Amino acid sequence: MRALAPAEHLGELEDAVDDLLGRHDVADPAARPALWRALSEAGFTLLSISERAGGSGGDLADAAAVLRRCGYAGLRLPLVETLLAAWLCEQAGRPIPEGMSACGVAEAGTAAQLTWAGTAADCVLLVHAEGAYSVSPATTVATAETTLAGEPVGTATAGPGAPTSVRAEELRLRGAVLRAAMLLGAAQRALDLAVQYSGERVQFGKPIRAFQAVGHLLAGCAGQVVATSVALDAALASLSDPGCDPERQEVAALVAVVEATHMAGRLAAATHQVHGAIGFTAEHPLHLSTTALWSWRDDYGNEFEWATRLARIATAHGREAWDLLAD
Amino acid sequence: MSTPVSLRGYRLADTADLRADVREFVAAELAERRWSARCDAWLLGWDPEFSQRLAARGWVGMAIPQEYGGRAAGALARFVVTEELLAAGAPVAAHWIADRQSAPQLLRFGTEQQRRLFLPEIAAGRMYTALGLSEPDSGSDLASVRTAATRVPGGWRVTGRKVWTSGAAHAHLLTALVRTTPLEPGTPRQAGLTQFLIDFDSPGVQVHPIRLINGEAHFAEVVLDDVFVADDRVLGTVGDGWRQVTAELAYERSGPERVLTTAPLLLAFLRDAARTGIAEPAALGRCLARLSTLRRMTASVAVELTARRTPELAAALAKDLGTRFEGEVAEVVRQCRTDQGGDEVSRLLREAILQSPGFTLRGGTTEVLRGVIAKGMGLR
């Protein structure tokens, strides 16, 4: 058995990301361009994209480590979208976007309600037409809407594209795995805030964490977070292993995104419950984590869709699905 | 970060050959109709001949060193074999406690004489043990045990009652937690406890089976009436019983049997599902995702244990999630079935439901485990 473990360098990478984020006001939308520049100059925005293609090298576990810490900090920047756009371009042999990018799937040439389209400088679409896929740069228009997490939304229209073997399901699942890393970070932050608050808030003469009901609620949250973390580690390792059977990779990825998207709503509800009313005031930082949990869990799909897909694959294998469920 | 443990993911691919060997063995046993798959077979499936056939393959006592008759195959190999046997619902109950718990305890705390006496028999699948922890008035609050021993020349005299002792009706040896120093006001209750290895055929031992709602009687009450236990049957150190028992809880809490009790039901359902269809695929997919995650969690705890770390928190987390999952499997199969025929799935579903109250009680209730986790998070 090989440990898939976070190698030592991942700890250093996470510390470097924390250090960088600590020098900015992450919650201030006006600070976003400077924050992006700093992350990009440090090489944190294009990890897992080969240096040959213009990326920073490294693997998906490196990229996920950055995403997890950015999720923890409550960052609102198109990190996942830019990674997906660069990966699509790399796969299709096109130049990768230089800055922030939106990314999505377009049926009939347009993608509506696309996060960061019209705000990020670039947008790359995976266009589905006549049974084939192509990768296209897009023209974009921002709308006045934002997501639950307060991220900008727009509409994208595809230009001329290059053919690709990447299918929509593959892109969406890859996006959901990367997003799961951010969800995990956001969940860890929400849980840390709840643990801290439960020690500070005194009711009936003692900190509320002394009440068994509160302790058990938080213990349940820890279980959800650890489960997601274990599943995500396995998925990242599977996806980074070129020798791994594609169906096993898909199953490992689906397991991780089912765990992450299922966890998200539960963690948001439980951590708000522990905080009482102060937790959903605009001044309290908890919402930076919980609005992210509510929003990001629906990116690229949701837990019902992912779970249904996993069930269909397993059922096709019958009893032998047992083997697919841990590799 | 407040998450109390970080569990590393492990890949099980390197053990594919061993898995295939076990599966081939299981298929041959089923083809010969030697047994049928059952839920909760690690408690209900008592079959000494099966245990000995497994031992002949080297699949009992896998973690026992060769000098004591074991295979020294390591925790991961043992994990793979137990996973496959549990998934098959094979009758592993006879040797289960001896293999899982008594062997590691003897290796860690036993005398050389005890190891030479017991370990080769355990590895041969011939010696079975039972755990004497709970009492009529001591369940979750284990330090309140009242079974007591008094010093006599050459050993101890033990009197008391143990209950919920799985396998006591057929096992050879009881590992009993006994008070050897009377409780004095002001001294911690955890002090003065000792573990004894008590032969079930000692004079003064009576076993009364307890019938459960499924008609089975794997539990028993064990009455100890002035039972003589020689000094050479003290396990470990007199007065150190509490530490010894709690140090081994991770073995009891984190194994694949805390996840896979109802796996035979889930796998039988999957086998039929391609033909019958699934009513609620999302519910099934969610259940399968959790199964995958829990298999990885228990695998990583198994590896942690070999490193002589005692991942008590990780074990508590895995057991809390795992045993709740075991009960959910029955609910998900109910939700997903599209036919109600009298097939194997129906039988396994009935078994799973009738055994389910025990899943989140035995080996530490969900409530106790959540307390352990909360403590580990610094909440109390």
Task: Walk me through what this model shows.
The complex is a heterodimer of chains A (327) and B (380). In chain A, strand 5 and strand 6 form a beta hairpin. In chain A, helix 7 runs antiparallel to helix 9. Chain A has ten helices and nine strands. Chain A has three domains: 75 residues; 67 residues, no CATH class; 157 residues, Butyryl-CoA Dehydrogenase, subunit A, domain 3. The N and C termini of chain A lie close together (10 Å). The model of chain B has no long low-confidence stretch (mean pLDDT 92). Chain B folds into three domains: 116 residues, Acyl-CoA dehydrogenase/oxidase, N-terminal domain (Butyryl-Coa Dehydrogenase, subunit A, domain 1), CATH 1.10.540; 110 residues, Butyryl-CoA Dehydrogenase, subunit A, domain 2 (Beta Barrel); 132 residues, Butyryl-CoA Dehydrogenase, subunit A, domain 3 (Up-down Bundle). In chain B, 47% of the residues lie in helices and 14% in strands. Chain B has 13 helices and nine strands. Chain B is α+β, with helices and mostly antiparallel strands and 380 residues long. In chain B, helix 1 runs parallel beside helix 4, helix 10 runs antiparallel to helix 11 and helix 11 packs antiparallel against helix 12. The chains are: A alpha+beta (327), B alpha+beta (380). At the A-B interface, strand 1, helix 5, helix 6, helix 7 and helix 9 of A face strand 1, helix 9, helix 10, helix 11 and helix 13 of B. Strand 1 of chain A pairs antiparallel with strand 1 of chain B.
